[in-house]
Each structure stands twice: as C-alpha cells, then as structure tokens.
C-alpha cells in the first residue's frame, strides 16, 4: 500500500505564503510537521500530491493500492484505523463533509473529489489546518499530542529522558519535561507545570533563559542568553532564537537571534530577523485582526484578537524592522527601514515602508538563497532553483 498526502486546494490557497514552497503537510505544527505525524502513526513512508512545480522535491509515489490522505488533517489512532479500513473506491468523510481520505488503485493527477467515490462517514472530528492563524492557534495542543507520542515511542524503545545535570537550572513540573540526548541546558528556568516542554537532540538552552510549556525546541536549535520563550511556542530544527517569543512557530533553519518581540506569528524556513525586530499582535482598539488573503487579494477578518506576522521562506528583515498586527510577508523578501511595514509584502520584494518597494531581482535573490543554505553545509541545487523560480514567476503573474 502507498500513502499519499494530498493538498486540498482551498486549504492550500488559504495557507499561502507557506505553501508556495512546500505541500500543506510539510507545515510544522507542534513538535512535528504534519508529514512527520502521519509517518509516525502509519509507521510507513508517505509521499505527496501537490502542485506540479513542487513534485520534483516532494515526489508523488503510487502503486496498485493507494491511500490518498488530506494533508491538512492531523492523525489519531481512530482516524488511522478508519482510513486503513477503507476498501477500493471508498472515501472517508467527516459529518461536516470534510474529505479525509480515499482508497484507489489509480494514480490521481489532482486532489480527489468525494463525488467520485462511495462515501463512508466517521464520527471523528479531526484537527484540521484550514487558515494561517490555525498554525499558532492549534500549536499548544499539538505540542501536547506530539509530546505524548514522542515519549511513548521512547518508552517502547526502553529509553527515558536524558537527565538535567546542570545544578543552576530549575525545573517546575519535571514529569512534563523530556530532553533528548546531546542537549545542553545552562542556568535556566523551565516551567512545565501548565504544559510539556520538549528539548530536541543537540539543542542548546543558554544561560539566563526562561521557557514556559507547552514549548518545543527541536533538534540542533539554540535559545540564546536571556531568551524568554512563552507558552505554545515551537522552535523548529536548526534555529537560533533570542528575546521574547510567544505562541509562535518557526519552521526550521531560521534565526531570531537577538532581542525583540515575536508573538502569535509563524516564520518559515531560511528566514532571518535582525536585532530588535518586533511585531504587533493586538490592535489598540481590541477589534479583530484582518489578514491578507491570497484567495481574495484583500484583508479578511480572522475572527481573532491576536494575530501577528506570517513570513514566507527565505525572507530577511533588517535591524529594528517593525511589523504591524496581522502582516503577511511572502517568499524571498528583503524588508528594512523605518516605520511599520505594509500589511502585505508580496514575494520577491526589496525595500521598506519608508523607501518604497522594488522587485527583488531573481539572480540576486537566488544568490542570497544559495549562500543562506550553503552556510549550513546543505546543498542548494537545480531542484531548489527551479522551485524558487516557479514562485517568482507565479508572483509576477499575479
């Protein structure tokens, strides 16, 4: 059997700019990406059915028996059992008609439609990623869910949390703390009384740091000296963070290394926030935050009082850049300068509110992206160039 996570078209559009550069299921929410969650529950590799320009990097692998699963849905044991119980030609739907999965011997060239299959209904109401603020709004509960799975897997393998040996660190709620091998913690306060704290392999928590659970610091990431990590926050792998971060998600390979506030925000991969970058996450008049919609091209009501910065991959923000409440920044943007930045900055833009914006030349943007990835010792080849070129062309066509 082959398992394929598909991009539901409405969800994919709603989750731009992050889905410019990845399938929906490669969004991180909790400790893991949705792809990693499904691979854990299924105990089997998965592939993706996504946009054609993404398929080289995220291949679509099929056989004679295929389970296509909605990549925006978070798995549970009951849901996995229901999916695996489907027979050829059946579709699994929730009571509100959300398509969860289909089983077919055919290779599909686009996201499946429930009308082409025999419906089977589940009483489950799974956690489903539908819009940008869901990434941070659902993050705390997903940290809890993933923490349960991670620790249970370790227990089955006969492993326990690595000990916290530093005599100058203090832990509250020690039963909710899990430390992977190779992690280093120095003179810090970890409060897991209200939710679990997960510290990944070779992660570093530097002197004077404070973190409140639910909190996840993934493999090889660092909290710099005096960092204040508030609850419901995930720092993905190979990130460096400092200052104050609350109810936010950094996907991976991104830096917010200095002082400044980041709240109710989502930062993609390969981003850098300069010293004293700050964002607003609450309006002074306490009205709902509006957020740029790629579906309508307008600001749309999120229904939320708190919503901060949504920043696509490969974007850089210069020192002391200020982002307004509910700002959406696209892929490969270089933004800097005085004053609050616009509520939406399209992909491949260069400039700032005071100076104005111009196009970020593709050759220059590609050079910076190549250098950014190369500094981490990772390859940046033809597939990555083709992907970013496709995003550039999509942006210019809008």
TrEMBL record:
Taxonomic lineage from the root: Bacteria, Pseudomonadati, Bacteroidota, Cytophagia, Cytophagales
One Pfam family of this chain: NTP_transf_4
Transmembrane regions listed in the UniProt entry: none
Keywords: Acyltransferase, Transferase
Name of the protein described by the UniProt record: Glucose-1-phosphate thymidylyltransferase
Record-linked InterPro entries: Bifunctiontional_GlmU_bac-type, GlmU-like, Trimer_LpxA-like_sf
Record SUPFAM superfamilies: Trimeric LpxA-like enzymes
Coiled coil: none
